[in-house]
Design brief:
heterodimer, A: 241 residues, alpha/beta, Rossmann fold, 2 domains, globular, B: six-stranded parallel sheet, 23 helices, 11% strand, binds iron/sulfur cluster
Chain lengths: 241, 474
């Protein structure tokens, strides 16, 4: 089975370890991983800012790069959601390409849901000695149906205890360009999230989107919390936190 | 002043923040519990969506049917194209019937035209009878902050202080006592009023009725005691049948306040007939367009399905933190972020469609399945086309996409970028100030990258893997 891995621009730039953790997880689940070397961005920033033309150009690039794979896996609910639920709208005026985009959308998965729902993985290699809490990132949860999958996998990580926090499904305030354009509101939402994370008593918060990680970690550190770790679920599952 | 500036004030208003924190989550919990009473929530929501969509798809047909049936029951249907028309029509009716004092039950549409001000300017008196609206009225016509609970942003203490000041009565700390006091004051007005104005949750085409959904009973009094009743609502509020109303009523109170049914549901059809006990002698409907046909013809037409339950704002993390007043006009929250730019002009509310993280919490709770984030995005597209954003934003966005389409150049820029950022992050790997990103770094650090991109490292690993592979024998 040939699985294309779209690492996303944020992983490429800010947290390469997530990409490598994803490769390890996919390979140990038995997939042959293909990483297109020229991959960049799925077009979401342009799309969500109203710039359809640029979003369209980038979407074409992504479709071309991955349509040959059996599956497309993304270590981000947000970018996976972009491809799976929004490419169709982008190509509404181009039926020929829309069919190609729809075919790709149908085989696009967020990483943990691919591991659990498609590859039927129940055990992972990772080990983590400590207590973590899980934040459900919005697009993963509400566009990709990611809720139980990361928890199922985390339960299989040796040494790890999962302690849920209140409002784990409430947005952390990242929202892409929202985080800069409406920085003050974004910060307030991040701060609410940090209070719940700290209140849970966990020593790390685990989540599935690097954008939200930057937001939460950035706020934690500004609040003066240098202890609580902010980890991508792939890093924890692969034992590379 | 735009959303961002207003939100800044609200975020730093300690009293408001305490009040918002107090109500937060209450409606969320109640709604969740109430929806469990329905056998099949999703199917009911589908039905609700379809009913509303069917009405919108043939709006002219249903409106004509409504007009015919209302007229047959002795009511007069008037059409208001603009907010000014609403005020003009109300005053014309008032003068025709020699009206001096008016009582009102809640009508958000009348807020669109600032009707109370127009009434007072014409020398008549008007009293709001919905408790929330009344509180706002006696507080110098403070604008509502929520479509269901207009004064939700006020604390009990603020209200008791206000009542003591305006009514000249001793301060009361108990909510029941405050309600009783308001009731006493309002009762006098009910009896004296010669005209009652209400909103309309639904107009029913097959019967020519208006449906009012309330909890305080004030709408029943306001619409039946005075000799004239005027119901004001938007053209989009028409539904084909009473059966449709029944389905929508399974959703509306549950989504709004978490009640199985509101305390009162009035279905008012026509004037008081021979031998009937209840009803106004003269009944008017003011059916308001005021931008709605434009919405109907636009890419955000689904917003007209709205049944004004308020669930989208109750669940919105932005609304919960900045409050309703930040949105600047009649309708706050996610639905307001769509309706306000459509009704008052995108250029006057240009940051509203962007004022959301697109977390889609609103979309998943909307009882009639309005894809609120998608509609906000459609308006962002309009704003982008019309270049309503700042040039800097536009440039950054364009530059990013331009680079991302050129993988080699992107790779080079990325390699340089992450190295610069790593240095900026210093030993603790945290960037405290970003030159073009103070929106981020004013309140947060930016975790610095590790200094190599994934693509770089991946290529390097592939090279190493090839180098360590045994040379195949010739
Ligand atoms: S948009 Fe939907 S959730 Fe919001 S008020 Fe209207 S019906 Fe309710």
């Amino acid at each position: 089975m040939r699985v294309g891995l779209f690492v996303t621009c944020l992983v490429d730039l800010m947290r390469p370890s997530v990409g490598f953790a994803a490769i390890e997880l996919l390979e140990s689940a038995g997939a042959e991983v293909y990483v297109p070397p020229a991959q960049t961005c799925c077009g979401q920033p342009a799309y969500n800012s109203g710039d359809r033309a640029d979003a369209l150009a980038l979407a074409r690039k992504v479709v071309g790069e991955f349509e040959g794979c059996d599956h497309l896996v993304v270590p981000s609910g947000s970018c996976a959601g972009m491809i799976r639920t929004h490419y169709a709208d982008l190509f509404a005026d181009d039926p020929a390409f829309a069919a190609r985009a729809a075919a790709l959308a149908a085989k696009t998965h967020e990483l943990t849901s691919f591991l659990v729902d498609v590859m039927k993985v129940t055990r992972v290699a990772g080990r983590y000695d400590g207590t973590v809490t899980y934040h459900d990132c919005c697009a993963g949860l509400r566009e990709m149906g990611v809720k139980a999958q990361p928890r199922v996998l985390l339960a299989g990580v040796a040494g790890l205890t999962l302690k849920e926090m209140p409002e784990c499904e409430t947005c952390c305030g990242f929202g892409g360009t929202f985080s800069v354009k409406f920085g003050e509101i974004s910060t307030r939402l991040a701060d609410n999230k940090c209070r719940h994370i700290i209140g849970s008593g966990a020593d790390a918060v685990v989540l599935g989107d690097v954008g939200c990680m930057l937001n939460i970690e950035g706020r934690l550190r500004r609040r003066g919390d240098s202890a609580t770790r902010v980890l991508h679920v792939a890093e924890v599952l692969a034992g590379k936190p | 002043m735009h959303f961002k500036a207003r939100a800044h004030e609200r975020l730093n208003d300690a009293q408001l923040q305490r009040n918002l924190a107090r109500i937060q989550g209450k409606f969320v919990q109640k709604r969740r519990e109430a929806l469990t009473e329905l056998d099949d929530v999703d199917a009911t929501r589908d039905a609700g969506r379809d009913i509303r969509q069917r009405a919108l798809d043939n709006l002219d047909v249903w409106l004509e049917m409504f007009e015919r049936n209302a007229a047959a029951r002795g009511a007069t249907v008037l059409w208001a194209e603009t907010p000014a028309d609403i005020n003009r029509l109300v005053l014309e009716i008032a003068f025709r019937h020699g009206v001096k004092s008016i009582i009102k039950s809640k009508s958000m549409v009348s807020e669109e035209s600032a009707l109370d001000h127009a009434i007072e300017a014409a020398g008549l008196t008007v009293v709001e009878t919905d408790l929330g609206e009344y509180i706002l009225q006696i507080n110098g016509y403070e604008p509502p902050s929520h479509i269901i609970g207009p004064a939700l942003h006020k604390s009990k203490e603020e209200v008791s202080e206000l009542f003591a000041r305006q009514h000249g009565t001793p301060r009361k700390d108990d909510i029941a006592a405050l309600c009783l006091e308001a009731r006493g004051v309002l009762r006098r007005h009910y009896l004296a009023a010669d005209m009652g104005i209400s909103g309309g949750n639904f107009f029913v085409a097959e019967t020519g009725s208006v449906v009012l959904v309330t909890n305080e009973g004030n709408a029943t009094l306001a619409t039946t005691l005075p000799k004239v009743h005027v119901a004001i609502s938007g053209i989009e509020k028409v539904v084909p049948t009473l059966e449709d109303v029944a389905t929508l009523m399974r959703l509306l109170p549950r989504s709004a306040t978490g009640q199985s049914i509101s305390n009162y549901v009035d279905v008012l059809s026509g004037t008081k007939g021979e031998g009937e006990f209840h009803g106004a002698e003269h009944m008017y409907f003011i059916v308001v367009d005021s931008g709605r046909t434009e919405v109907l013809a636009s890419e955000v037409r689904e917003a007209l399905r709205c049944i004004r339950c308020g669930a989208c704002m109750n669940h919105c993390p932005v609304y919960q933190n900045v409050g309703g007043h930040s949105y600047g006009w009649v309708y706050p929250g996610p639905i307001g972020a769509i309706l306000t730019p459509m009704y008052v002009g995108l250029d006057k509310a240009r940051d509203l469609p962007s004022a959301s993280t697109l977390c889609n919490q609103c979309g998943v709770v909307c009882p009639v399945r309005i894809p609120l984030p998608d509609l906000q995005r459609k308006l962002r597209e309009k704003a982008f086309e019309r270049r309503l954003g700042t040039p800097g934003e536009r440039f950054a966005l364009k530059a990013w996409s331009w680079l991302a389409r050129r993988p080699a150049l992107y790779g080079l820029a990325a390699r340089v970028g992450v190295r610069v950022l790593r240095i900026m992050g210093g030993r603790r790997r945290m960037i405290h100030r970003l030159p073009f990103g103070h929106g981020w770094t004013d309140g947060r650090d930016m975790p610095a990258p590790r200094g190599r991109t994934f693509r770089e490292l991946h290529r390097q690993r592939a090279r190493e893997a090839r180098a360590t592979q045994p040379v195949p024998p010739r």
